[in-house]
Amino acid sequence: MAWRTTILAAVTLAFLATPAAAQLQGDAVQVHGFAGWGYGKTDGNTYLLGTEDRSYDNVNFSLNLNATLSDRLMIAAQAEWHSEQGSTVTDLDYVFAQWKFSNALFLRIGQVQQPFGIYTEIYDVGTLRPFLKLPQGVYGPSSLIAESYLGAGVTGEYFTSNNWSIAYDAYVGELKTPFYHWIMNFDWQTGAPIDRSSTFDYTDVFGGRVVVGTPVTGLGFGASYYSGVPTGLENGSDATSGFVMSGRRSILGLQGEFNNDTWWIRGEWVSVVKGSTSVDGAEITGDTGYLEVAFKATEHWQLAARYDYQTNNFGAGFDYGPEFSSLNDHKDIGFAVNYWFSPNLVIKTEYHRVEGNRFADPGWDNFWEIIYGINDRTDLFQIGAQFSF
User: Fold this and answer.
1) Comparing C-alpha atoms, which of 231, 245, 236, 230 is closest to residue 197?
2) Residues of the chain whose pLDDT is less than 70?
């Protein structure tokens, strides 16, 4: 999958360097970017932008380009760079070509943003959300959603005479979802730390999304779905960690939002509805979701609150003891006070109370020390700035 993405990027960049691309004028080529910086401090665990020792090096920058080559053909690409808690990553988020058949039908081919839920197509745009980071259960390091798929899809939107609308997406191809759980970064026999950060690879993927807009301005509801055949963890970690996935796996998501100049209200729920996942023979079930509400009190000041959760339930056969009860659940109640200089520049100040250690990493050196001395509650303060252009 990686080499095909590289070829797509190379072809896109090669074209953009040609005289034909150089002749594009005015709005035919649009360049946009998003960036942010954040500081975080927790009372013990590592979570979002915060560590116990304070974290200042949380920086991200994304640059995207849209080139309209004709009335029907457009090419889009985005690259990202971010540094977070000592780890630096450079990545190609997407690169695809889009052909317009009509205002209600577009064809996309390449590495395309996965149309699933509310935020998948605006991951990096901090000025379109009330918190510095997205909800961890739905969009975090072990999300069931991919940032992009490699393949082909169609998209479009229909409008009715009585102010209803239906936006749709359908696609086929392959994708990768992130896989990370800090307890999997240890050798379970010795307790020694090792690196098992990985991804789940899915082939034979098909999926889609439908979003219904209502006559009430800003109010909409939707459902997303995809199904694919998992081929295991990219690094082969399933063999050493005990994780096994079998059969075709299907993911369902539901969403609702209401947005206007004063209120941002958004909620999502995501779950595996088909397919078996197990660890050491014990089947895993669970779901995740969030609800966030933001209120613009004045032209510049905004108040926000969010509840974010993920649950994982282990069936018979998982007998590592009650010490694991906090390692697979996540509840985050967050509050934010934001100051907007303009729609493109904001400073966000946040407090989060987290229960569970699904994403709150103790960061110790030995797994067994963690189990018998874990802090299952985390308090986080973070502040940061985000802008777009």
Assistant:
1) 236
2) 1-27, 84-86, 179-200, 232-246, 276-284, 313-325, 363-373
DSSP string, 227-269: EEEEEEETTSHHHHH-EEEEEEEEEEEEEEEEE-SSEEEEEEE
Structural domains present in the chain? 30-388 (2.40.160.10)
pLDDT in tens, 20-75: 544 554 568 999 999 999 999 998 788 888 877 777 778 999 999 999 999 999 99
pLDDT digit string, tens, across residues 287-338 = 899 999 999 999 999 999 999 999 876 665 555 555 566 777 899 999 999 9
Q: How many C-beta atoms lie closer than 10 Å to residue 315's C-beta? A: 12
Rounded Cα–Cα distance for residues 367 and 181 (Å):
13
| 295, 304 Cβ separation under 8 angstroms | yes
Q: Which residues are registered as beta bridge partners of 272? A: 251
Residue 302 φ/ψ, nearest 5 degrees = -135, 140
Residue at 316: amino acid letter: A
Closest to 168 (Cα-Cα) out of 158, 182, 178 = 158
Predicted TM-score (pTM) above 0.90:
no
Q: What value does the CA radius of gyration of the chain take, rounded to a whole number of Å?
A: 21
φ, ψ dihedrals at 191, nearest 5°: 85, 5
Give the amino acid at 113.
Q
